[in-house]
Amino acid sequence: MPFPILRTPSVVQSEIISLLEPNEIVTASVCSKNLKHLFKSNFPRGKPLAWRLTMTDMNSCGRVDIETSDDGEQITVISAEHTSELKGHELKYINRYKRAKKCPVLFFNDQVLGTKWIVKYVTDLFSIDISSLFVDRNGTWAIDWVHKRQGKILYDFGWLETTKGNSDADKTVDYVLRNVRASNYCAIEASVSDNFKFEGKLGPMRQLYIHSNGHWITLNNLINFNSIEITVRGSRLSISDLNSFLRHWRAGGSSRLKWLQVNFEKHTFQEKFDEDLEVVETDEEKVYHRSGYGFERVVHGGYSIQRADGVKALIQCDPKQFILATWHERAMGSQQLVTASFCSKNVKHLLKRHYEQRKPLEWRLFMIDYKSWGRVDIKTSKDEEQITVLSADNLSELNEPIPISHASNGYITTFEYNCLTWFMKDQVLGTKMIVDYVRDLFSIDIFGVILDRNRTWAIDWVNNRQEKILHDFVWYKTAECNLDADEILDYVLRNARASNYCCIEASVSDNFKFDGKLGPMRELYIRSNGHWITLNNIINFDSIEIVVRESRISVSDLNLFLRHWRAGGSSRLKLLHLYFEKHTFQEKFDEDLEVVKTNEERVYRRSCDGAEMIVYGGYSIQRTDGVKALIQCDLREFILAVWACFFFGYCCLLKLPTEWEVGYRKNDDGSKETEGMRE
Amino acid sequence: MSSTEQGTSSAAPAEPTTAPESAAAPEVPESFYYVHGKDKVVHKVSAGALQHSALIHGMISNLGYTEEQAKANPFPFENIDGDILQMVVDWCNQHKGKPTPPEDTNLPKQKEKLFDLVLAVNYLEIKELLTYCCKQVAMMVKGKSPEEIREIWMIPTDAEDEAAEKEAKKRAGKEAAGETAAAAGDAK
Q1: Helix locations, chain B, DSSP H
Q2: Is residue B48 part of a domain?
Q3: Do A32 and B118 touch (CB under 8 A)?
Q4: Which chain A positions have a beta carbon within 8 Å of B135's beta carbon?
Q5: What is the pLDDT of residues A556-569, one digit of tens each?
Q6: Which domain holds residue B128?
Q7: Where is the composition biased (Low complexity) (chain B) (predicted)?
Q8: A104 touches chain B (CB under 8 A)
Q9: What is the pLDDT of residues A299-322, one digit of tens each?
Q10: What is the arithmetic mean of pLDDT over A28-45?
Q11: What is the pLDDT of residue A264?
């Protein structure tokens, strides 16, 4: 029984589309222009999909696959073949649906043109970029084509040799290696001549995999390739090459490398490590988690080697292969240092003196008091994981089965997950004590605090303890105790200070209003219940980025704000992102604002995490001083992204952090252009 | 779910320290409301079953009708066929107070009624049932070619769309010309 989908309301259409697989959408989209348009409007540019698109051009067949989840399963959505593949079928079958493949197959006289056509069709339909590219030697054209089409770097790349005896294989492989850029995985399988050499660089990437014929990989290549994992098959590297590589590694070279696997062309490898490398025999076994798809590989060792900075590696080898697997274990982490400081007063004194005498640590100390559980976390660098080094809990939370010890401080203490916990009758006191303990031990200030609504005391306590303003401040609501929510939030907003990031989540009443100021800071994030944010707040808050969820700001308020902004107000603001409480926002900009429609797209780099956000515009607005902004809006949200045309030059000159200024335009050919540079 | 059950279950986890044992909660009799479709046949449905419909739930939440008042004022849904409303009421009764399973075997089986059912469910804002119905619609095109999909989803070809558009423009032009002529006549 037929179902007239085009006669259903848009809510129903969206629900049905959300339940279709990508190949079903592509197949249905070729039914008619109207249906294609319906699908396209469900995948707008402003809402990038989490799907990943793979373009394949191999064995004279083009293909587009889509991966909708992280399980790695790909669905072919459309393919392009040469008309010669029709093998005498009549022309009326020129474009057909292959039931076995569950996707349409299009036939072209020019197969390259066909592949380009299907990729353009799918990227346009779903508004997504190409994530992965897999080609053989006839598909080398695609490398340049993809790079020119999109600003986004490929995630995976594979180049596989499908035919033997290629006269110009060396030239082609050299071209591929010099031009390909992939951030995650790069696989090369090539039949190059014995004389082929490559002197360039590869990476940075996560995995480099030379599938076969790796005889061309030299010691210099190993040293110059920037990858976390390198696997080479068919290698002709000698033991002296590997000794030289180990010497380079011990001196701190190839610092990102965690896995090196060399499979030899001839199975005659004999290990003979130079003495100065201090390679020692070991029976140790370790499980290495491969970065590709999370595979685990047990390395049985045989030998162990250590770098000058303490990083260790196991070496496993036999006549067929050589494996170097590293473990980035430092001599002692912040967690172990804190635990060790409880051994005795002398140990604590020793550590304390060490950290007093050396230059100030760049570690970041976070005070967390959330749901009646106090914690001190440390991040040893911006990119390292945040680790809990000490915690304080209420005595009533003490679980009997855990081994209890009485540490030197005299309080009941347990040791779980490599971290000590103090149990005290007064948990607030406990939190204060653990924060003071760690601050004192490492001579560092509190970098950030994460609190819930019952821990407002900590704001004043931190402000009184240190001169240095907090970098981050996060205040979450908890389900319990919603009495006095308005008063508490008012107190928090008036007293909390953070220079970088301020996140507020509160359940305040409908009547709550805040008439004070906030900032200066980099990012203000109202995580929920942002109904209390008024036009005056946005004007008065001094932040580079403002994100508000569940906003009730009206289009007339936004018109007033844009007028204020055009006149030079909120000059530090680079991003205003409002998510509306009700999804009924209708843009209607006042004429004097000179808001114009545009198809321009720009990439905005968020200051908090450096993540890139594509702003697809829709509208453009210009300030009297020449500064431009794109406006993107729909029923649910409003985005104002500012591009500082003139500011860029100053940033370069003053060497300010790049996240302050970056806003580059994507040109038609995919290249990036910065407004400041252009001018 | 009856109002009694709902009150107990929502109170217990929120305030475990202050809430008394759930056994102490008093039994409140279930309230009923009445609805009818295009055929004027009145269906008696419990408030618990009607909770599935965001539209009806919003209408009844502040009414405080007595049984007699509810009986005397059935909710009219003139845009819904009687048999479709019956299907919806049956589904709401079957799923009263139960968590909706990921796959629903109690869906109405008549495929020919699916379009009307989807429109009714969308109008009544029954989120779970709409998802189930849409799943059925999505399943219809699994493994089908574009030609088959065109038939199943009644998609006109581009040529048909263009012809229809041309026709609509022509009609609009004629209507506009007629209105202009009428206005000119009025002016005279």
Answers
A1: 3-14, 47-50, 54-60, 67-72, 82-94, 114-124, 127-140, 146-152, 158-187
A2: yes
A3: no
A4: 19
A5: 999 999 999 998 89
A6: 32-142
A7: 8-25, 178-188
A8: yes
A9: 887 899 988 777 889 999 999 999
A10: 89
A11: 94
Closest Cβ–Cβ partner in A1, A19, A96 for B138: A19
Residue matched to tokens 């009799």? B29
In this prediction, what percent of chain A has a pLDDT beyond 90? Answer: 45
State the nearest Cα–Cα gap between A239 and chain B, in angstroms: 56
Flag whether residue A35 sits within 8 Å of chain B, measured between CB atoms: yes
Nearest to B155 among A11, A20, A31 (CB): A31
* The pLDDT of residue A413: 76
Q: Is residue B163 part of a domain?
A: no
pLDDT tens, residue by residue, A190-217: 888 899 999 999 989 989 999 888 999 9
Q: Which long-range contacts (CB under 8 A, 24 or more apart) does A171-180 make?
A: A172/A137, A172/A140, A173/A198, A174/A198, A175/A140, A176/A140, A176/A143, A177/A202, A179/A143, A179/A144, A179/A147, A180/A143, A180/A154
Instruction: State the smallest CA–CA distance between residue B13 and chain A in angstroms.
Output: 11
Determine whether the interchain pair A19/B134 forms a contact, defined as Cβ–Cβ distance below 8 Å. Answer: yes
Q: Total structural domains in chain B? A: 1
User: Which distant-in-sequence residues (6+ apart) come within 8 Å of B20 by Cβ?
Assistant: none
A535 in a structural domain: yes
Out of B122, B152, B157, the one facing A32 most closely (by C-beta) is: B157
Choice between A330 and A33, residue whose per-residue pLDDT is larger: A33
Residue A633 tokens read as 């809006």
Domain end residue (candidates: A110, A126, A142): A126
pLDDT tens by residue, A237-285? 999 999 999 999 998 889 889 899 999 999 889 999 999 999 999 988 8
Q: How many CA atoms lie within 13 A of A536 on its CB side?
A: 6
DSSP states of A647-663: HHHHHHHHT--GGGT-E
Tell me how far apart the alpha carbons of residues A145 and B49 are, in angstroms, rounded to a whole number: 58
